[in-house]
Write a structure and sequence with these properties.
single chain, alpha+beta, Aminopeptidase, 7 strands, 32% strand, globular
Length: 149
């Protein structure tokens, strides 16, 4: 599995425009970069498998703020239920800690998103409780605990 950067310049992402799922993600992150900026490695990535098929994506919701960074990830429909989300999450945690071993890594999920909750638990995240997210309403906030991973 490889992390493939979603670049700031749209022309550099043309090779990702082969599926509707990828185009939808590119549109989202084009807008997201305008809001939070573009600072590698704290960006978004597509994820490819061993055959170079794009199977999902993930990334950071911006560069660390107050030594904290939030991750986000998703698996494309045809690849769900195969451990892809768990691996994407693991890779994002690994990259964050390689970049800054002291950064606090967080994630948010909807309370009924049991697949994402399972992914976070498998990757050593602990639920801190419910918080109000401006975009999603009440969500569960999680924090990575390297000692439970």
């Amino acid at each position: 599995m490889k992390l493939l950067p979603i670049e700031l310049e749209e022309a550099q992402n043309q090779h990702f425009t082969t599926t509707a799922e990828c185009v939808r993600v590119l549109t989202i992150f084009s807008e997201h970069y305008k809001k939070v900026g573009f600072t590698k490695p704290w960006i978004a990535y597509f994820v490819s498998d061993d055959t170079n098929a794009i199977i999902g994506g993930g990334g950071y919701k911006g560069k660390p703020n107050d030594n904290q960074v939030e991750i986000s990830y998703g698996t494309f429909k045809n690849y769900q239920g195969r451990g892809v989300g768990t691996e994407i999450c693991r890779r994002l945690v690994e990259l964050a800690l390689q970049t800054d071993p002291l950064v606090k890594i967080t994630a948010r999920t909807l309370p009924d998103n049991y697949a994402s909750i399972t992914i976070l638990k498998r990757n050593g995240f602990t639920c801190l409780g419910t918080v109000l997210d401006p975009e999603d309403g009440d969500v569960l906030e999680w924090e990575y605990n390297k000692y439970s991973a």
